[in-house]
Amino acid sequence: MIVSRGTIDGIAAALAAHGLILRGGFRFDGDEAAPGGASGSPASSALLVGQAGAAPWPHFQRWLGRQPRPVANPLDTWSREVIGAVAREFGARAVSPSDRPYLPFQQWATRAEGLKPSPLGILMHPEYGLWHAYRGALLFEEEIFLPEPHAAIHLCDTCTEKPCMKSCPVDAYSEQGFAHEACLDHVRGPTGAPCRTGGCLDRNVCPYGADYRYPPEAQAFHMAAFARL
Fold first, then answer.
1. Which of 58, 137, 200, 210 is the most interior residue, by most CB within 10 Å?
2. What is the pLDDT of residue 12?
3. Are residues 145 and 35 in the same domain?
4. How many domains does the chain have?
C-alpha cells in the first residue's frame, strides 16, 4: 500500500490549521532498524513535521491560555497533542524529538531536506536560516514515494565573517563546541538579561532568514525553558 499524494495534501492542510508544516520525508532502508508504526510493525516511511518562523506561536499561546492549570513542558505537550491527532486521523504513529529513548531527528532532517548544521548546531535552512524547528514526525507502515531531496545550499559556507561566533559575551560557541555551563551561567546571571528577554545573541546576529526570526516573546519563552535545565 502507498500513501497517496491526496493523503499527504490532507496532512499538510490539517497541520496548517495549527501553523505547522511538513518538512519533507524519506523511506527507511530495508536493513535499518526502523521504529514501529501505528500497529507496531516497522515503519516504512516518515514525514517530518515542523515550523518555519513563529507561525505556530499564536496557536500555541491560545491553547496554553485555555489550560486550567500549569502544564509541564507546554510546547512539547501542545506539539504532541496536535501532531498526535493528525497521526490518528491518517493512520500514522506520531513521535517527538523529546521522546525517550531519543530518535535521530537531526539525521532524519538531513535525510528529508538535505540540510547541514550551522556553527551553532542548528541546521541551516536556505530560506528560513536558523529560524525553524522540527516538532515531530509521522511514521507510516506504508510506502511514501517522495523525490529525493536536493543538496541544499549551505549558507554558512558562503558566510566569511561568521558573526554567530563573535556575539556571545562568554564565547559559548567555538570550534571546540558548545560551552553549555558557561552559557547557562551567563543566561541565569545578572548580565544575561538581553539573552533572557530577546534570545541568543549569536543566533540573532545571523543575517540569513531574518524575515522568519522569532518574536522576542517566543525567544524569551525558549530561553526560559533552557535556563531551567
1. 137
2. 97
3. yes
4. 2
Q: Which domain holds residue 209?
A: 159-227
Each residue of 138-151: pLDDT tens digit? 999 999 877 776 77
Shared domain for 149 and 36, answered yes or no, is yes
Q: What is the pTM of this model?
A: 0.94
Return the HEC string of the chain: CECCHHHHHHHHHHHHCCCCEEEEEEECCCCCCCCECCCCCECCEEEEEEEECCCCHHHHHHHHHCCCCCCCCHHHHHHHHHHHHHHHHCCCEEECCCCCCCCCHHHHHHHHHCCEECCCCCEEECCCECCEEEEEEEEECCECCCCCCCCCCCHHHHCCCCHHHCCCCCCCEECCEECHHHHHHHHHCCCCHHHHHHCCHHHHHCCCCHHHCCCHHHHHHHHHHHHCC
